[in-house]
Amino acid sequence: MENTLLKLEQINTHIEQFHILHNIDFEVQPGEVTVLLGRNGAGKTTTLRTIMGLNSATNGTVQFKGEDITKLPPYHIAKRGIGYVPEDQGIFYDLSVGENMRVGMRQEDDATKERMDWVLDLFPDLKKFWKKPGGQLSGGQKQMLSIARSYVNDNDLLLIDEPSKGLAPVVVEKVIESIEKMKEKTTVVLVEQNFYMASRLGDRFYILDDGITVHHGDMEQLREDEELKRKYLGIA
Amino acid sequence: MELIINLAINGIAMGMLYFLIACGLTLIFGLMDVLNFSHGALFAWGAYVGIWAFDVTESFVIGLIAAILAGLILGLLTELIIIKPVYGNHIQQILITLGFMLVLAELLKVVFGPDIMAASRPGYLDGSWSFGDVTVIKYRAFIILIGLLIFIGIMLVLKFTKVGLIVRAGVMNKEMVQALGINIRLVFIGVFMVGSALAALGGALFVPNSGVAYAEMGMEFGIYAFIVVIIGGMGSVPGSLVAALLVGLSGSFMGYYYSDLSMVVTMILMFIILIFRPQGLFQVSGVSNK
């Protein structure tokens, strides 16, 4: 499509001697939540890391807003407007919640302040524990902080890696609600193994298996395809 | 009692010098994961440049500033030429920085001559104050004051400035700092330069106390700096201060009572820490190797 926000073409990624991603093709349309699904070790996290430049693509291209960002260093990619919430949340444990947010702010202008206010209304716990070290937050609060930090900049795309991992169901519900609200303001690529979360949030899906894209389509289609879910996601 | 106080003051003054050389090293190791054995040579270069500039200008302050500038320049060159090609490889770092330390020591002899250099104190820092039976040597009090001011300055920068927050965040997780849009390379270079400048300042402050500078002095102080970093906890500035004071005080007291055992006690202190608290006295939490 013409207005594709992010496009991966024939991406191959190696980590040391291991060939992780094999000719991945992947597109993200603005305003949508695109979900990357697949079993452990399928290459979902490596796909996000390759987009961010944290793992280098051996060949293939990553285009963001029409620009080839394949060989750019991670900080340039972030400055182009991509926010990243890693699987381990990437919280700076000795820094307070406020300091974690400040490190993440590329600018300290009115627009950033406005986004900060919005995201703190979304996650009131962060305001409550503003001066508490990030390492002392609960798992859910760390996840909220990581998502909030990625949102505070004027990003066009958020890459969120397994936000439900290790969280209690009630906290997962909160995270889903917050991403639903963010979805109205930005585009999201979500890596998720929790199919409930993926189907609640996703507009489109890609399924990876052994580093290969094996299926993609509208989330509606996946919700109804029991055979596909059983085969690649292990959902009976 | 006055003996104990005098030994304590001497120990604290030496501790502050160890702190100056170690605080840069701890940030360099914590942030950049670089084992820089040439760091001690910057201490010697600071000493020589400080003496030379003091001799030429007759201003002790200019001598200190010249040492800081020399540290900044040598730090920049070291990072760009020696360290940059060996990021991520500790074995290569050890070999190349050990070699570079020897090169820097030999270069001192080439530039300033092979003989030891005599150093003097400025008149206004000569002499001592007497408080009853306790005599405080002015210059040692000056070293303690400078060390404290630098510690407070570093802590304020780390706590309240954006650059300081980035450095602290970088010690914990470099990869995430980059993913937030920050050029970690520039931060690396900046920290390396500042760390080198502090080591050079330490050297320039040390020689008026010892009276002489020699090219190999950096090796000795470099070893102490590594011990301080290990005891204090890699990446922790307050840890460096506490460890430096411990090492300074133990060196001062042991040096007086059992001078042959001075270094041994410091080593034993390090071994105890390595066995029972390998992360050091002050651990930086949530450190990622990425």
UniProtKB/TrEMBL annotation, chain A:
Checking InterPro entries in the record gives: AAA+_ATPase, ABC_transporter-like_ATP-bd, ABC_transporter-like_CS, BCAA_Transport_ATP-bd_LivF, P-loop_NTPase
An example Gene Ontology molecular-function term: branched-chain amino acid transmembrane transporter activity
Signal as a keyword? no
Species whose genome carries this gene: Aquisalibacillus elongatus
Pfam families according to UniProt: ABC_tran
Family label: Belongs to the ABC transporter superfamily.
Designated name of the protein: Amino acid/amide ABC transporter ATP-binding protein 2 (HAAT family)
List, in alphabetical order, the GO biological process terms annotated in this UniProt record. Answer: L-amino acid transport
UniProt keyword terms in alphabetical order: Amino-acid transport, ATP-binding, Nucleotide-binding, Transport
Tell me which positions the record assigns to the signal sequence.
none
Q: Where is the ABC transporter domain?
A: 6-235
From TrEMBL, chain B:
Q: Return the GO cellular component terms, semicolon-separated.
A: plasma membrane
Subcellular locations according to the entry: Cell membrane
Q: Does the keyword Nucleus apply?
A: no
User: What is the name of the protein in this document?
Assistant: Amino acid/amide ABC transporter membrane protein 1 (HAAT family)
Taxonomic path: Bacteria, Bacillati, Bacillota, Bacilli, Bacillales
In terms of one coarse class, where is the protein primarily found?
membrane
Ranges that cross the membrane: 12-30, 60-82, 94-119, 139-158, 179-201, 221-249, 256-276
A Pfam family (short name) is BPD_transp_2
Instruction: Return the CDD domains for the record.
Output: TM_PBP1_LivH_like (cd06582)
Recorded GO MF terms: transmembrane transporter activity
Looking up PANTHER family in the UniProt record yields: ABC TRANSPORTER ATP-BINDING PROTEIN, BRANCHED-CHAIN AMINO ACID TRANSPORT SYSTEM PERMEASE PROTEIN LIVH
Q: Example GO biological process term?
A: amino acid transport
Query: Sorted alphabetically, which InterPro entries does this protein's record hold?
Result: ABC_transp_permease (IPR001851), BCAA_transport_permease (IPR052157)
**Family in the record:** Belongs to the binding-protein-dependent transport system permease family. LivHM subfamily.
Q: How does it sit in the membrane?
A: Multi-pass membrane protein
Q: Does the keyword Cell membrane apply?
A: yes
Keywords for this entry?
Answer: Amino-acid transport, Cell membrane, Membrane, Transmembrane, Transmembrane helix, Transport
